[in-house]
Amino acid sequence: MVQATALPRNEVGIDSALGILKQRFADRFQTGASIREQHGHTTTWIANQAPDAVVFPHSTEEVAEIVRICAEHKVPVIAFGTGTSLEGHVNAPAGGISVDLSQMNRILAVHSDDLDCVVQPGVTREQLNTHLRDQGLFFPIDPGANASLGGMAATRASGTNAVRYGTMKDNVLALEAVMPDGQIIRTAQRAKKSSAGYDLTRLLIGAEGTLGIITEITLRLQGIPEAISSARCSFPSVDAACRAVMMTIQYGIPVARIELLDAQSVGAANAYSKLDLPEVPLLLLEFHGSEAGVVEQAETFGSIAEEFGGQDFAMTTSTEERTALWQARHDMYWASLGLRPGARGISTDVCVPISRLAECVTSAQEKADEMGLLAPTVGHVGDGNFHTLLLIDMDNPDEVAKADEFVGWLNDLAISMDGTCTGEHGIGQGKKPYLAKELGPATAYMAAIKRALDPDDIMNPGKII
Amino acid sequence: MVQATALPRNEVGIDSALGILKQRFADRFQTGASIREQHGHTTTWIANQAPDAVVFPHSTEEVAEIVRICAEHKVPVIAFGTGTSLEGHVNAPAGGISVDLSQMNRILAVHSDDLDCVVQPGVTREQLNTHLRDQGLFFPIDPGANASLGGMAATRASGTNAVRYGTMKDNVLALEAVMPDGQIIRTAQRAKKSSAGYDLTRLLIGAEGTLGIITEITLRLQGIPEAISSARCSFPSVDAACRAVMMTIQYGIPVARIELLDAQSVGAANAYSKLDLPEVPLLLLEFHGSEAGVVEQAETFGSIAEEFGGQDFAMTTSTEERTALWQARHDMYWASLGLRPGARGISTDVCVPISRLAECVTSAQEKADEMGLLAPTVGHVGDGNFHTLLLIDMDNPDEVAKADEFVGWLNDLAISMDGTCTGEHGIGQGKKPYLAKELGPATAYMAAIKRALDPDDIMNPGKII
């Protein structure tokens, strides 16, 4: 494990807040060691920093009550969704209260005429899509995990559909939030666009719970397309695949998904998902549109792929085949771990302008080889975002040090290419040094906003800033 | 004219700053009465509040220098693009310095591989599109005026293409800005998405120059579609037209534009643009896609229109006919003024969930009739946004009072429908009371952010907050 910095604890305040919250929330207030540990960071290599207690509110008013108690006693409050974040977002470096929003999981309204819905933060993306299916609607954002929508908003999540539908910042119309002083606000109305004042919606999206706790989310929805087709195509090299992606985007084909798996990842998928794909770099695509439209899109992509040496191009409109292919893509994390049983997976998350993508991915692979690291790569390549997953023996300090060096090297490379150290995972604890490298003087204004809204630093302290 | 509130002036500071700026900028520093008046508000009914001087910087460093001088002497700094805003955004209620960015009008880079470009804030949207055309690219956001891209970012502008391509918030990748203390920051890298810290890009977009001056903008671009077709269709009522729009959006037809003109507006367009359209409510549409795709979209829309009593459906792929139709749409402001020569046009800008659009537009028309106001209406109806243009004799105080009442009534109605008082024009001075009605407690946090970043309130004081 990599130690996360501990922050000074306000023992007196924490004791007082614990007492009040225990009385107020009875069995919805928990302090057992195992539940506390589950509410600290449990993924990746950042060490767990458990909160002092976990509270399970049922309403916005209860969240506000918890925050007011914590504000009065200057005690940290950490919003918790499903705990699937990757950069230590839910750790409690100064102790405090984890506010577990999983029981605030009601879908409050679906406005099918307006293509939007209102949900509580504990609703997961799969829960929402199951609920919507009968109405011919879906919500497109799909990070790997079945994350909560509150958590996805807080980390500005995206996933495989972002190339067509954007990220959480593009798909949230309005938020309700409890601010650090316990006040409840709404950031916007339900209109599809607005120029009314500062964009507090977008300020809270990606703030990782450091400026307020999201208690209600108004989401844009999409109609399920008339037709969906998927395609796959193998390429002689990662470089060739990336160039085909670049051309596809420039050509304006409205791909719904365009995902890269490198040769190692394809091998892992073959083994894990019982597939029989050629073990060379692969692009997986999905097209949304009319019956004629998706065929046209796939054919146009097919011609582009050919130019770049694409082979074994296969298109399907069969729901079964499509689901199997995308299930394999979604299982890539587990499939990759299968390449080295017992290893831990450390995911990088750089995103670069697409013109630099081929160079960036190829350099990352060469560097990993050079350092003797096993590092299968998958990517949301239509956005220039890819994940090199380092498979590390955490008991080998030399390997851990190498992984740390690789992560830093790759983040620096992406930043030097006018890219970012994080396309979708967020800053949390793990990427704080890189945020400063990436945005320099701008971070001082982020800190000023944080101080203005949360002067006692009770909202998820030790993250981002 | 409607008087805008004056704010206390810092005479000593202004005198000092004027002296320093005059020496530094020589003939790029101007204090003539007429140029000062041109740099205050000159559109709509809000009275002009001229700045004390106008400076024309040529670089980000010069903007930073101006801001540092003004910060030191606590003098207001008001960024100025083309002066086409409608809510008093560029007025100087406490005096101060207008920073005219029109000479910072260079297109710094076009990255055609990445579908983005970097421009200075004084570049206008038409200038950019003229520059891009040869490369097969375009920038879709088109407010009525040939506004500057800095101004468009500052007011979160949109226009007729927003239904397909989004607003400025969706089409800016990164900003460079001079902050209230004179520091230069970059808000993001050029990657297509990022989860790196607070979204300062979106915070500055729509902040109307109250948090910083935008000095460079990285914009997303679009490839010019393979095919573009346009269509028009007449409807028996505004209600029927709005219902056809709602169905079109729900059906998922990716319309690039879908604009409503009410019967009065069609009459005005006929007279002004020498057209011969039936004088009943009209929808104008544009479709972008492949050759087959645009035909398919138009045909699907045609069937929907028929269900709602649409008549005289006409589709064209002729560039000439299409340009003539959209030119008429873009000239609607002037055409409407022709309905009552000598009158001033006061534009409303509400935006509501699309399920409430028909009711909102119809209520607005009934109310205007009831009050005896001439009020042609056009709208970006795919987004639920419409402009009722009040044609007012400004020398008749009774009429001005009625217009004021109407504007307040309509804003209240939109807010009661979960909509906004401003879809795209912004708050400025004119809509401040409605912002508080619309977002209530949230405005306190906007004010806190403003105080944190601009403690001396030098950046465009008296706007938004």
How does this structure look, described?
By secondary structure, chain A is an alpha+beta fold. Chain A has 17 helices and 18 strands. In chain A, a hairpin with a 4-residue loop joins β5 and β6 (116-119). Chain A is globular. The two termini of chain A are 22 Å apart. The mean pLDDT of chain A is 96. At the A-B interface, β9, α8, β11, α9 and α11 of A face β9, α8, β11, α9 and α11 of B. Chains A, B: It comes from Lutimaribacter marinistellae. Chains A, B: Its cofactor is FAD.
Keywords, separated by commas or semicolons:
465 residues, globular, Alpha-Beta Plaits, 7-stranded antiparallel beta sheet, homodimer, Uridine Diphospho-n-acetylenolpyruvylglucosamine Reductase, domain 2, alpha+beta, Uridine Diphospho-n-acetylenolpyruvylglucosamine Reductase, domain 3
Topology:
2 copies of one chain form a homodimer.
Chain A: H1 11-25, E1 29-30, H2 33-38, E2 53-55, H3 60-73, E3 77-80, E4 97-100, E5 107-111, E6 116-119, H4 125-132, E7 137-138, H5 149-154, H6 162-165, H7 168-171, E8 172-178, E9 184-186, H8 200-204, E10 213-220, E11 222-223, E12 227-234, H9 238-250, E13 257-261, H10 263-273, E14 282-289, H11 291-307, E15 311-316, H12 319-330, H13 332-337, E16 344-347, H14 357-370, E17 377-380, E18 385-392, H15 397-416, H16 432-439, H17 442-453
Parallel strand pairs in A: 2-4, 3-4
Antiparallel strand pairs in A: 1-2, 5-6, 6-10, 7-11, 8-9, 8-10, 12-14, 12-15, 13-14, 13-17, 16-18, 17-18
